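Entry for the shared binder. Reason: the reviewer on the internal report wants the predicted structure included alongside the sequence.
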Amino acid sequence: MKKIISKIIILIVSITSIAIAENAEKNTGKPILSIDEQTFDAREVDEGAVIEHAFKILNKGDQPLEITKVKPT
């Protein structure tokens, strides 16, 4: 019984993933933001140290992506 339930759950997740991917392809006429990592933890930093980190941001849509506001959390 547990094997059947796990197979059903895997099937539902697979179908959902496919539906999301197909829906993303149909989203034309607007920008689509894609970012691999949304947070960065610098851990403990010495006073006066310079910390640098780059976030990879992609526009997977077919219109320009404008980032108008960024704020730290």
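Summary line for the report: The chain has a mean pLDDT of 75.
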